[in-house]
Amino acid sequence: QVQLVESGGGLVQPGGSLTLSCAASGFIFRLYAMNWYRQAPGKERELVATISSAGRSTNYADSVTGRFTVSRDNDRKMVYLQMNNLKPDDTAVYYCNTKLGRISFWGQGTQVTVSS
């Protein structure tokens, strides 16, 4: 079955950096685009970054452009989100996601808290 397992969240001071990882299994990873979403308390889940199946194309939310970088390793079936210059508004649960046809799959999420 499809599994997505995030890791790497934690508490970081404003201006700091974190790298999130997502380990994928149960599907042919190299064929599918991968997404990172986040959900802050009291807010809707929002798309943060997308990377194409081969990793040649990426897209970012305006709020993270220039600070976050999404990447993937198709051999290891991993996708990453490098987050730099973190701000308190980046505090959220971050989720790894992929869509296989009409079905969307989610990881359990990893908490990122940006606070001094």
Q: What is the alpha-carbon Rg in Å?
A: 13 Å
Shape call: globular
CA-CA gap between termini: 40 Å
Strand count, sense and barrel status of the largest sheet are: 7 strands, mixed
Task: List the SSEs and their pairings.
Elements: E1 3-7, E2 10-12, E3 18-25, E4 34-39, E5 46-51, E6 58-60, E7 68-73, E8 78-83, E9 92-100, E10 103-106, E11 110-114
Parallel strand pairs: 2-11
Antiparallel strand pairs: 1-3, 3-8, 4-5, 4-9, 5-6, 7-8, 9-10, 9-11
What key attributes describe this structure?
mainly beta, 116 residues
Quick synopsis:
Helix content is 0%, strand content 53%.
Description:
By secondary structure, this protein is mainly beta. It is built from no helices and eleven strands. Strand 5 and strand 6 form a beta hairpin. It is globular. It starts with a strand and ends with a strand.
